[in-house]
Write a structure and sequence with these properties.
The complex is a heterotrimer of chains A (278), B (306) and C (305). Chain A is an all-alpha fold and 278 residues long. Helix content of chain A is 73%, strand content 0%. Chain A has one domain. The radius of gyration of chain A is 22 Å and the shape is globular. The N and C termini of chain A lie far apart (49 Å). Chain B folds into 2 domains: 212 residues, Rossmann fold (3-Layer(aba) Sandwich); 82 residues, Alpha-Beta Plaits. Chain B is 37% helix and 28% strand. In chain B, the strands form 3 sheets. Chain B has a 6-stranded mixed beta sheet with strand order 5-6-7-3-8-9, sandwiched between helices. In chain B, strands 11-12-10-13 form a 4-stranded antiparallel beta sheet, covered by helices on one side. With 305 residues, chain C is an alpha/beta fold. In chain C, 39% of the residues lie in helices and 27% in strands. Chain C has 11 helices and 15 strands. The chains are: A mainly alpha (278), B alpha/beta (306), C alpha/beta (305). Chains in contact: A-C, B-C. Chains B and C meet through helix 5, helix 6, helix 10, strand 13 and helix 11 of B and helix 6, helix 10, strand 15 and helix 11 of C.
Chain lengths: 278, 306, 305
Amino acid sequence: MSITLPTYSRLEIPLLGRRERLWAIIATGLRQGVRRPAAIAITMLGAAFTTITSIILLFLSFLLPAGQGTGLSFFAVPASNPFVLFFVSAMAAVIGSGLIADDIQSMAFTLYLSRPITQLDYLLAKAAILAPLVALVTILPLLLTALVAAFLGLLSWTIALEAMGISLVIGGLLTLFYTAVTLFLSSLTRRKGIAAAGVFAVNFGLTIPAAILAESIQNPSILYLSPWNDYLAIANAAFGASGAGIDWPVALAILLGVTVLAALVTYVRMKAVEVITG
Amino acid sequence: MNGVVEAAGVSKWYGEVLGLNAFTASFGKGITGLVGPNGAGKSTLFKLLIGQLRSDQGNITLLGENPWNNVPLKRRLGYCPEQNQLYGWLTGQQFVEVLLRLDGMPAAKAREEATAALKVVGLTDAAHRPTRGYSRGMRQRAKLAQALAHHPEILILDEPLSGADPAGRVHILRTISDFARDGGHVLMSTHVLYEIERITNNIVLIHNGKAIAAGNIHAIRALIDEHPHAVRIDTAKPRQLAQALARMDHVVSFEFPASDTLVVRTRQPDAFYRELPQIVSDTKLEVHGLESPDDSLDAVFRYLVG
Amino acid sequence: MLVETAGLTKVFGEVRAVDDLTVKIPDGAIGLVGPNGAGKTTFLRLLLSLVRPTAGTAKVLGRDIEDGVLVRERIGYMPEHDCLIPDMTGVGLVSYMGRISGLGRDTAMSRSHDVLQFVGVEEERYRKVAEYSTGMKQKVKLAQAMVHDPELYIFDEPTTGLDPRGRTEMLDLVRTIAKSPGRNVILSSHLLPDVETICKYVVILDGGHQIAAGELSQLLAGATDRLRIDVRGDREGFARMLNEGGFDADAGPTGLHVARKPGLEAAVFETAKALGAEVRYMGKEIRSLEELFLELVARTEKRGA
């Protein structure tokens, strides 16, 4: 009998299904994504800051003598927390911009696609990496604010629960919007810096000039161009407050439309990427 | 002092990183293959020869002259770098022309020479298409055309065949052979050893920044004492033949891998081949086939570099 | 059958990259060769189900390419170009890919180590891929193709960028895999001598069509009725003496070629002894895959022109 090192070993077990495969991508992506110090900082800061400011804003809105409507409408104020805009941009830029761009740059996309998953699987997994992190800034603060308000008796539990439900929906919409747009921008380029710049451009580049322009020419319709203002319109309407300046159904249509469009275009582009170069 | 390239104790460092280390060799007439592991010093050697770098120690001359800061010498050589990035928006014709004109050739002559060079490498049909649409093999030929277009005396080619399809490879090798046949010198590097064996027997083997061996592949092989030359003989009676061959005192060992095969190892292959016909003829033993599987560049490389 | 296609066609705009291809490729070690633009790349993309055919059907390992995911479960693909994720470690990357193929976390990790050992990546596996040499990167590319133990390996120019030692190592690995029972290999390469040493069956594509396919030994059978001799010494004189002795010899650039007849071999050595010449090679008139390939492609060009 002779002993030799094992040469080529075989594997005889059945493969796990789609859920486990996607989970592998999501789990690894989350781990890689938050490993970098910048990512950890932005996420922690973002979640903490927006939560704290949301709570403060809610308190302030109680103190203001405006005193109108039901308790629920006070919630429109923390929901309009402008720090959300800032931190979502930062997170999308730091964490999200490279999600697809890096794979195109390194051409690792080829490896993913030669695996038993589809392009759709790949996109869904990437979205599932970014969305939870964005939700820490768009949804979590609002949930925590409602909880805190209920505990301190500022709002009844019924209203607090209602507020949490509505926060989930509109926060969810905002999350989907930013996830789709960031992934779309990330798929356009090999350099994630460009994608990151794109995210900032979409946010601040649209929001600030639109606000200024709307003021100066006294035409609020321009605000439709700004995703943040669209969101504000929807948030205000959802919480029963007023004073957004633009109609929430149109705003909703715009946000949803852009989200779906960005997702579709990204999907189509992914299908077209050359996986084997000739 | 008759080599096209003469190097004596040439050293070049990049900080701590080794480029060449006391590299000494004389070579270059006709077609010479430059072979060595990654990081051995081939690109450093090329850059020294085309005058892009200056050695830290030692002397190197090309065609008898120091390449550093030597513009007239640069005109006598044609260089084909490894990178495959051409200016994608230029057509093949424009690419070659532009480089010629950068060299100082007047426009009309540049156009003529470019067309001729592209014809030599077989790119006439594709000459007016942008190079971004070229396959890897076509890009290699375009680079070769640009190296040839000003009729240099020596071609320095870094991996000229990589990525080329078989037809492209044949074409490039033929272009190189024709160039050498017409009196030019060629220095080419490649990792695919049998490509070199196709067109030349002269090599320079580089390892760790030094020249390990330079000259004829077979001569080098014969000198590698530690690995006696193996010859495989197909014969119906291997053991009898072995007995007859054992007379030769340079024969080191016999092996019988099959009932009709004999593998002989000898320290002196030349003597072996000289004496073999006599022995076969005298013993009247039937020999059906004869082959020396390790008299190749591959074997030389393996034995010397490992 | 490893691959079966029927009228497989893929059209990009005006280019018929793969044109009405009907082939039956058996199990084993298969070479896929063809000039640039022959449709090899597109064919591989179709097999991996990464593009949908314009027309026709194909089955890989008995599974229709309609269901790409099912097909890719059993394929390991080693791309030609760089494709590794630079920030991951070797073992991390390979086990990650294993998980995406459906291996559980622990199985993937265990396989990853085994496979990296097989390809020869030792402690480097704990370092980031970005720091690897070309040879190491190629090995990791091979490892990620192996980790889920696929039935079919597709190698696309596996020796690109490797120095001679790396080439030998890589070809040895490919050969070991190809010889492993129940595992199949499709090797796509321009380096025909490599294909010759590893593959038993070869498919030759040109212009989107298959212009030849078959067992290598049969395709290259050619003239077994001639003997090729490498003579050092007076070649012309050698040929002349053999001709005078009743044999049909002619001296060409690749050596002497003589029609086989009884007594030829003995005559060769007698002639060598008489002339004081050396016989350095005597054997089959080797027709290489490269020669066959060039011949076939030239023939197709002539027909098309």
